[in-house]
Design goal:
Layout (H helix, E strand, L loop, with lengths): L9 H19 L15 H31 L23 E3 L5 E3 L9
Antiparallel strand pairs: 1-2
Length: about 120
């Protein structure tokens, strides 16, 4: 008996299309346009950027707490503050944080878009 080559059936093609659609939706996400809800990132790159911004905010919060602890222990603010390692740099730009003891004794991130942190 001769073997007959068989092509794809319509159902198989529709299943493949549905699987591809699920992968695309999982990769790019669905937009969340409901009023009053926080907008979700639409791409993995945006999610990574938001995570790095949250890491920068956490670094600044920890460094500010460290400055306040220094003040509580020594009764004065440090003249210089040079945090070491990756805690002292912004995870987005890699720029070191800036400490301003002469103005308001705060530590800032110089990366554009991080002014509110």
């Amino acid at each position: 008996m001769a073997r007959v080559a068989r092509g794809f059936v319509l159902v198989e093609i529709l299943i493949v299309i549905a699987i591809i659609a699920l992968v695309v939706v999982g990769y790019y996400g669905l937009t969340n346009e409901r009023e009053g809800e926080e907008e979700r990132p639409s791409t993995p790159r945006q999610a990574i950027d938001r995570g790095k911004m949250a890491e920068c905010a956490a670094n600044l919060r920890n460094l500010r707490a460290e400055i306040e602890l220094f003040y509580a222990e020594h009764g004065r603010y440090p003249e210089k503050f040079n945090p070491s390692g990756t805690v002292g740099t912004c995870p987005v730009s890699g720029q070191p944080y800036v400490y301003a003891p002469e103005t308001d004794r705060k530590i800032y991130c110089t990366t554009p878009g991080h002014e509110q942190l």
